[in-house]
Amino acid sequence: MDVSLRRKEVWIIGSVCLLSSPVLWRVLRSMMTLGGHRQAPALEDTQAKEDAWSHPGLETAPAEDKRTAPPSDDGPVPAAPFDHRIVTAKQAAVTSFYTVSRTEILGGGRFGQVHKCEEKATGLKLAAKIIKTRGAKDKDEAKNEINVMNQLDHVNLIQLYDAFESKHDIVLVLEYVDGGEPFDRIIDDNCSLTELDTILFIRQICEGIRHMHQMYVLHLDLKPENILCVNRDTKQIKIIDFGLARRYKPREKLKVNFGTPEFLAPEVVNYDFVSFPTDMWSVGVITYMLLSGLSPFLGDTDAETLNNILACRWDLEDAEFQDVSEEAREFISKLLIKEKSWRISASKALKHPWLSDHQLHSRLSAQKRKNCCPDAQDLEAK
Questions:
Q1: Is 129 labelled as part of a ligand binding site?
Q2: What is the pLDDT of residues 105-132, one digit of tens each?
Q3: Protein kinase domain: which residues (predicted)?
Q4: CB of 61 within 8 A of CB of 347?
Q5: Is 315 part of the annotated catalytic residue set?
Q6: Which of 73, 197, 221, 357 is catalytic?
């Protein structure tokens, strides 16, 4: 009797040890799989997607080999001309430390204007984003932008240098870039934006977003106006404007009701919970626009645009997509999906053949040369 009891005790203790050991637990699961007790594939896929979206920091960059090397471009994106800083708004006038140009206005929006400026002590060229604050809420939003930018240190994300607070405004002093928007190159008759150029832009956008998501930050206002080229001669870009960005806490369900209509994800239109895939929907819209010059959901009115988004009504039938690769088409189809959990993450996007397949990029590069220099191709053939 005693011996039997002891055996049961040993078996129970051994079972507890087995289940509490991660290594042994994996062995047990693999044995169960071999025995036919495998989890349903659909459930496994769903759980894998949830794990990937809930823990973007666990996702890794694709290993680069001959087939998945990034396309050749203008070299690495230049870092900001200063180390990453943790900035707190100073209770002082920005003009005490910087010369702010009244005439060189770099941009503007709902917040106010961005002016070119220069640090008096060093001569460093920067940009002053002057945010008009009419009340406590406006100040809180501007300070949220400072807090978000303090967490983001990546070459594809514009960097914060300094900040100032006064009674009627908060000024963010930012890294200066002067290359304009990639979309400007679509409408410029002197510039022909190719599919390979678009790959270079989208790859960098995804690199920046992957870093943001690893830091649990959602941009929530990705659109062509918020993507700037470093200069006018290269295809190096930086994501700007974190005024609507939010810290994402998976346990706290986040809803937002702002943004630019034609770039809004369905969950924003429905005032549903947002998360990492919300930014990836915008990447799909930007990709569509850079490849074609068309906006996939734009209607004659905002109401029509929002209805098109909710119906997920888009196609690739326009003549502008006639020469676009199958890989590009599939890339868009993996992002412009109404159910957000089905969209690929930034890391998965970077591993997609459209952004990673060196053979495809070589083919597109050869096609680009052929289109640019038909006369040279004819001479070479002769």
A1: yes
A2: 998 877 889 999 999 999 999 999 999 9
A3: 100-355
A4: yes
A5: no
A6: 221
